Fold this sequence. Notes:
By secondary structure, chain A is mainly alpha-helical. Chain A has 11 helices and 3 strands.
Amino acid sequence: MSTSITGRSAVDELPGPDGRGPLHGDGAGTGRLGDRLFGGAATASGIFVIALVTLVGVFLVAQAIPALQADQASFLTSREWATAGAEPRFGIVDLLWATVVTAVIAMAIAVPLGVAIALFITQYAPAWLSRPAAATIDLLAAVPSIVFGFWGLTIAGQYFEPVATVIDRALGWIPFFAQPEDGPSAKSTLAFAGVILAIMVLPIVTAISREVFAQVPTAHKEGALALGATQWEMIRTAVLPFGKPGVISAAMLGLGRALGETLAVTILLSSLNDGAAFSSSIFSGGATFASKIALGIQEANTATSTGALIAAGLVLFVLTFVVNAIARVVIERRKAFSE
Amino acid sequence: MKTLRFGQLASIALVGSIALAGCGSDNNSGSGTTAGAGSSSAASDCFTGTLNAEGSSAQKNAFEEAAASYKAACTGAQVNYNPTGSGAGIKQFIAGQVDFAGSDSALKTEEKDGVVETDAAAAFCGSPAWNIPMVTGPIAIAFNVKGVDSLTLTPAVAADIFTGKITTWNDPKIAAVNSGVSLPSTAIKVFFRSDESGTTENFTKYLAAASDGGWTAEPAKKWTGKGEGKEKSAGVAEGVKSTDGGITYVEWSYAKDNDLGVAKIDNGGGAVELTGETVGKAVEAAKPDGEGNDLRLKLDYATKEADAYPILLVTYEVVCSKNKDAQKGKDIKSFLKHFASSDVQKSLEEIGYAPLPSSVQTKVEAAIEALS
Amino acid sequence: MSTIELEAGPRGGAPAPAAPPSFAPKSGPRALRDNLARIVMWGAFVLGVIPLVWILVSTILKGGSMLLESQWWTNSQAGITDRRVGGGAVHAIQGTLIQAAVTTVISVPVGVMTAVYLVEYGRGRLARAVSFMVDILTGIPSIVAALFVYALWVTTFGFQRVAFAVCLALVLLMIPTIVRSTEEMLKLVPNELREASYALGVPKWKTIFKVVLPTAFSGIVTGVLLGVARVMGETAPLLVLGPYTPVIVTDLFATNMATLPTMINQSRSENLQPALDRVWGAALTLILLIFLLNLLGRFVGRFSKVKS
């Protein structure tokens, strides 16, 4: 079965001589009334989806513009976020930093781990374990975001303290890994939020990688083994190169999810006070786009404060848009190159 | 069962949803027996139906307690409270979306963002809208310092702590107001509300009024001091609880529930412990600021009166003095009467609020009586 | 990507072209590397399972007892405060199911028809644009979907935040899931079936409706169920658009409707034992619901007449 928990599959169809997939319909209609109606309804649904995405963009832009015009600071370069009063000043630098850092940490953990788990399931696990193992990792996707956040804060977080200390001791000479003097407790840092995000995107990365690894032609694998390769060499030379584009798109989809994840981050992260010096450490606090919106929307009573949050949402939308577009391009290129 | 058909599936879904609907019950009266309080005062004029209110999260617990005990006495009545924040509550009230609003500041009489709240509310009601003080919630300065059980703070020292000027617990400024307490050299960790909140606004109002220039920033819902931001009251309380050297400002109930130390406040008239009585005394000293039954209270944050705890938050119920729907007016009246009754008010003390002092309570009851 | 280059020479072990295939034991660094890789893969799996087991165990330990009380399944939280034990989660369970059902009812026709368009009709630029937009929709963060509906529903139309607005936001998240899974299923329907139908003179729309869709039916249902499972655990749209209420509400356009995620969110705001028990109880209920849907989805998938 090729449906995945993410609802998308990296299964590719090999295009036929006429350029369309062998399992595609012929794309032609007969011009009968029923056909025109049904085909029209299908086309209308497609256009509706386009309209929907366009509407999302248009609405966010329309609501953000008045607030952006009222903004006394530079939206793209300011670190402030004060939306109340007649002279609002707000910018996204801090939000962008926290969003990107947590997402990058999540990817740094989830991609290698997810790929390794996918390899385990498709190549290493004994036959009886393979399916249950896949189902087990998929089960992680059934745990809602808010539960991850609450679990991270109240149960798992305390065990991150020693981990943070170890990282600080070993790599503390790099500012990125140094624990700041008056930083928040380890469970409220960008680093730990990244770890929790990693657990949350793990099933996505694993599921898609698993699907592409399972597609590696047996001939390739057996060929490698017949040439005397060890299992690892076979994976390195046959499985990984074949699956690389799939893994990249899996990583991109995971990244998209990590960038926009809301509740877990909102619950975990400590935010910085106004005017706090910028810290490049992963053991600092902060707010991501999503957590800022979640924290602010309840008390957003004025057009400016709502608009500022919507503008932040717009940036997040563009960010995930770009990431997904890259994933798309990678998949397209893979299609073009396969066989 | 090789093929599932639309029809089969639809019928399964239908049967499922029918089975689901109607099996639930809102009747928890059997388990709510501890409510007890105030059941006698409301039993006489129960209404049947639903009232919706929205607003300040600071009065959420008090409201729910009152709503629960009201329901225990009047099984057919349901009073909902949606703690979305004062601003949202007032906005919804003016838009006619809720029956009344809860707010931690009275309706504003001056223009803000093109709207004068008092006028807008009066225009919606067709009669003046009244602010009825219902719940007073003291804000505790909660701390967690190993080996320190009792701590006294003056507004100036508190302002220095919350602006980051004092960074360790054994700072001479703290020691000066805490003779006899051995203070460790632990670093001070300030926690603040990262969401916008009426608690932050009232606390900064206090600091600005009482600290003699120690707090210079404009009081606002958004924290402007130093520290580490946590989500909601539960977040800051949890932060202090899990951090040695932590300090925050939080509603009393959260300090109690998390077993945090609560600082005594010395405004100049001696150290005042946070208790129901000391809060009541401060509320009693508050000056009425509205006309007639519109009971705005003006708090004197800088009060030097002995035994009056000065860091307070008064939350109001914002109601139409004359409801367009007469039945609604009666319903609201019945519930608020219950809310203001001394039994209910007393029961609120257990959960970290302070009862209305009797002089204020009399005025409140008179105002509620005048509602229609 | 069709050729395999097996590196020879420096890594040793590759036989000289003329020599017969070498079956020499894989020794030294190669065997070491192979074993190391095996250990790493097993380790990775174990590492991935740890958080899952940890979360499930703590949820069951802390919330399991709530679910064993009968009133958890029969009563709401009306009249219960965070300080009191008692009451149930039926209001939240109902709310979650109602919202999921309404979301599904709206999403399925749009999603399935879009997939039909992509597979059976779509060609050229429009089809590529639709496909791209579906991808964008797949990646849209739930909080952005919620903000969009907020901007539309609350700030533009001036409506109240009601359960139906939540459904609209969830529809946005569910459509791409359904489109993608349905698309995969429709692609798996053999072309011979379509051609046989055409050959009998059946019009295209009837072919799709009576042959293609029924053939892919189980697969589509599976995709839908997995899509429902995904949106059920979403919290961000509920936070923005669907305030909590402790009572049973079945009217989608009434003020508030409780759901399991908002019940968790509400209860976690108080560090009191009864409230914390409810957090874990509601969390376990929600995980069970999502898990059951997943299981059901996989079960229905077994009846699929088309297999990849």
